[in-house]
Amino acid sequence: MHWSQAIAKKIIAERGARRHVVATGITPSGDIHIGNLREIIIGDAVRNALVDMGVDAKLIYIADTFDPLRRRYPFLPQEYEQHVGKPLSEIPDPEGCHSSYAEHFLVPFFESLDALDIRIEVLRADVMYKSGLYVGVIKEALLQRDNLAKILEEITGRSLPDDWSPFSPLCDVCGRLSSTIVTGYDIANHEVYYECECGNKGMTSMSGGGKLTWRVDWAARWKLLGVTVEPFGKDHAAPGGSYDTGKRIAQEIYSYRAPYPIPFEHILLKFKEGDKARVTAMSSSRGTNIPIREILEVVPPEILKHLIWRVRPDRHIEFDPSTALLHIIDEYEREIGGIGKGVAAEIPFRHFLTLVQVARGDFNELLAVIRRSGYEIPEDAEELDAIRNKAIYAQNWLQRYAPSELKFELQISVPEEGLKQLSELQKRALRMLAEAIPDGNLGAREWHDKIYEVASAVDIEPRLVFQAVYIALLNKPSGPRAGWLLASLDVEFLRERFEVAAGGNRHHL
Length: 509
Ligand SMILES: [Zn+2]
Ligand SMILES: [Zn+2]
Fold this sequence. Notes:
Layout: H1 3-15, E1 20-26, H2 34-52, E2 57-63, H3 101-115, E3 121-124, H4 125-130, H5 135-143, H6 145-156, E4 167-169, E5 180-186, E6 191-196, E7 201-205, E8 210-212, H7 214-225, E9 229-233, H8 234-237, H9 242-252, E10 260-264, E11 267-273, E12 276-281, H10 292-295, H11 301-309, E13 317-319, H12 323-335, H13 342-346, H14 349-359, H15 363-372, H16 381-400, H17 416-419, H18 424-436, H19 444-458, H20 462-474, H21 482-487, H22 491-501
Parallel strand pairs: 1-2, 2-3, 9-10, 11-13
Antiparallel strand pairs: 4-8, 5-6, 6-7, 11-12
Helix pairs in contact: 1-2, 6-9, 7-9, 14-15, 14-16, 18-19, 18-20, 18-22, 19-20
The structure holds zinc ion (ZN) (2 copies).
């Protein structure tokens, strides 16, 4: 049973087969990366499992657009210092291409979700606050300020300042909500009085004129949106963490049962720094993350989804975009299906890595290489598009993440220097290989067998024949699977290259 089905069963057993609302959400303060994606993929998988069990369930995504900018992140220009403390929805786009700071990071994220075929209902916090949706829960929070403070102090073990309020008013002079304190309120008129560090004293509306502090906001929105299930990072689940406070606030202040929690482990990024492998938590602000859209340039969406989907939420994922990612692609193509459609799907991704390098970036040559490898390509626009797309993934992966042993450059002219390393026996093997080439093409398997035959005839280790082939073609002692490589090349080219590498024309012997 997949973990999502096990979780769905538990939800139904503990909470009933009622209508379920699975909530996810993040603060769009920087590039939304694949660490953030885990939450959505867990929510999506559980929602789908519930629906498969006959339960009405939907997945919502709350974009915390009304959260303040906490600090000026390294990717922000100096002048963004003035925006620290303002809601993300009210700050201009740092690159000027979207309607706000928040949208700049949300829009590409939503495009990625479309590509991943994840259907969500998006709710923006600033829109919900401005619409007045929160007025009721804000009033309740202000009236129960002391009870809220007591819950927070009891659970976190930290004491709150006397001027603490569950509501942060938005200053109408400096635009910040991180620098104000509540001095009074008028429940009937939905107004809150405040003083700001900037010197302003004013009055603001409960409809968009400020927001609940994070821990109170979380519990309040469960009730407002009817949330019954929520996946969240394990830090929130720690004792004294926000889920513990949320649970009591929901129960005692809002008379609402906290959602069924699905805490999940982090996705760690594994990368090489010099010779050392490093593993680090993904973080937008520290720059140790890979934005989702960047990964989607290297692997198709189904792979990205699969690499998160295959791991139980309570296990961490080490994301290594290099060789480990390639293994996951291999596994996916073996067990679930080839990436792309038609011929593209038939050719394993790993083989594409060889084909695109043999074709040296030329699409027509790539088609010729594929045909030589024994595939028939139907004259069909969709087939060609699928090949082009898979080739782009292969090229991007090679360029950004491939280890050097998987990269090669087909030597168009004879690699004279490299050939000097060949022993007499290796040369003899290449000569025999040249003589054994038939006029028609050989398949990968046949090439592979030929190399073994030649090795045994010359009486050297097959490894040394492979090495000679790689040197003759790639000017390096190792390379991709030799059968595939040879099958993708023109036989005339191979015959001539092996003869030259063997030390000239066979008639001279
Ligand atoms: Zn933008
Ligand atoms: Zn102010």
